Amino acid sequence: MLRTVAVVTALGLLFAAALLAGPSAAGPEKIAFPKDWERYVLYATVDRPDVKQYRELYASSPAAVEAMKQGRPLPYGTVLVLVQYRAQLDAQGNPVRDARGRFVKGERIGFTVMEKQPGWGAEYPPELRNGEWEYSAFTPDGRFNDKANIKACFQCHKPHERQDFVISLASLAGGAGAAAGEPDVKIAGFAFSPARLTVAPGRAVTWLNDDPSPHQITVTTGGEARGPVLTRGQRYAHTFTAPGVYDYICGLHPAMKGQVEVK
User: pTM of the prediction?
Assistant: First the structure.
């Protein structure tokens, strides 16, 4: 009898432990599809020429948007939704633009959702954890997308701890620019122009963001040098002291690449 009670008690403890561990277990399945996302606050729209997409960003509450504007961490319970659409294309395969010069959205192609809850993320290793945020992805009709590369979400947002891992926060709060002047490189259409530049040692190179989307200069050669997140109209300068060829990317959009040769 005592043995039976002991076994039952042990099983009960294991079950209780599983219940306690369940809600905090890592994984995109923790996030339920936000069926009322269209009632959320639309706080930004982004044209993505690099992938020919039109994107809308929604926050679950006005309080979350206000925290973004003030540069504060977002409150627990916040759900952010990125809705992706194909841009409508003309006969040449270029995105169609409206009277304001913005992309015209076509069919919806998916959702990416991030949610913040107390204790979430504790199971992730330090090099991957994004505070208490979790990520998930859904198909256009709201079904869980088990083929999405969720790890890439953590890797992309990881460098932005100072803005609560929310990249789009910079578009509301503003980034940190550099002194004014004629830029060496302009950022427009999700591309660097010119993509290659030659300068003398000790010369500062200045980038100007002319895109509606935030960008971040990240020099990847010779040890990573990451600049501030730049919103439209802001600049960043980096001085290259030693001769060599330096590759750089946008820290927010790694497919954007450039190069500076110092000689």
Answer: 0.71
Render pLDDT for 181-226 as a digit per residue (tens, 0 to 9): 679 999 998 999 999 999 999 888 999 998 888 889 999 998 778 8
pLDDT tens for 161-173 read 888 999 877 667 6
State how far the Cα of 111 lies from the Cα of 120, in Å rounded to an integer: 21
**N- to C-terminal Cα separation, the chain:** 85
SS (H, E, C) 54-106: EEEEEECCHHHHHHHHCCCCCCCCCEEEEEEEEECECCCCCECECCCCCECEE
What lies within 8 Å, CB to CB, of 260 at 6+ separation is: 196, 197, 198, 199, 205, 240, 245, 246, 248
**Residues 59, 68: contact at Cβ < 8 Å?**
yes
Q: Alpha carbon of 16 to those of 3, 8, 56: distances in Å?
A: 20, 12, 41
Nearest Cα to 259, choosing from 214, 191, 198?
198
How is residue 49 written in tokens?
């020429």
d(CA 15, CA 9): 10
Say yes or no to pLDDT of 13 above 80. Answer: no
Among 186, 214, 192, which residue's Cα sits nearest to residue 57? Answer: 214
Q: What is the DSSP letter of 258?
A: E
Band of the pLDDT at 149, cuts 50, 70, 90? very high
H helix runs in the chain, sequence order: 2-21, 62-69, 150-157, 169-173
Note whether 113 and 31 are within 8 A (CB).
Answer: yes
